[in-house]
Fold UDP-glucose 4-epimerase.
Amino acid sequence: MDKKGKILVTGGAGYIGSHTAVELINQGFEVVIIDNLSNSHADVIDRIEQITGTKPAFEKFDICEEDKLEEFFIKHQEIQAIIHFAASKAVGESVEKPLLYYKNNIISLINLMKGMKKHNIPNIVFSSSCTVYGEPDELPVTEKAPVKPAVSPYGNTKQIDEEILKDTAKSDNFYQTIALRYFNPIGAHESALIGELPLGVPANLVPFITQTAAGIREQLSVFGDDYNTPDGTCIRDYIHVVDLAKAHIVAVKRLMEGKNKSSFEFFNLGTGKGTSVLEAINSFEKVSGVKLNYKIVARREGDIEKVYADTSFANEELGWKSEKELDEMMLSAWKWQQKITK
């Protein structure tokens, strides 16, 4: 297979990063990964090789360290694009440790942008989030929806990073940038070799569901059943991680082929369907055959009532569409959990 170019994936040992690295390699790209392993494991690199037959180059360091990043760029020539995942991402932790989040999530991007210019790498795809919309005024959420004041330092770092991309691209036409605003990624690769592996107590619903089913957690807490939704629980737009990964390949090709229509573009990535917490639990129970021990508890601070995407712009402009349904997402998450619990 002809190599299509060298792509740097920051945070490539992480959940979405590892799935994206797999899709890149499968499509003939050469992949180089930087990860400081603060929320991931080195053996993920070997698992990417098991799935694809190709081991990506891997460097362990923190891109907040500018001198190490400079050494990396000197060593790894001919990178054509960057997909930037590396960031701290737990909403609750960001409220407790705001300075850590501002340092990790903003300085890392600034360092990358400086290195891109110096080493002639014009293209960057940025891992953003639907948190930039806050509690939306209208559903489904289109790209025309206003960016609202962030409800957490984590959400604020995503907004600031998007502004950095936009302002830098505006000031210098060298930079070509795309921000992908994810809704809620879940599930795992069909091989069950990679998946979501949170260190410590999961902050996201699905790993908490699978860990409860596996007996690792005693009980799943459902935060509030008195929201203005059909069953009273919060609604989210869950998207399979492989569908999400494939969107990154489309975005990176768009930049490399010069098909982007402005130097800063952004797209919503979701399924366009809202799923409540109880619907997610029911889907999991159906596909796994496991009855979950869950309890309705008080609302959690910072939780948005309902949010789901209007994906028509990404569908039309990128020619990308999510494919996997909720039951399939849940089953893949459960197979992955069973594999790592053995």
About this structure: The CA atoms of residues 13 and 41 lie 7 Å apart. The first strand starts at residue 6 and ends at 10. The chain has a mean pLDDT of 96.
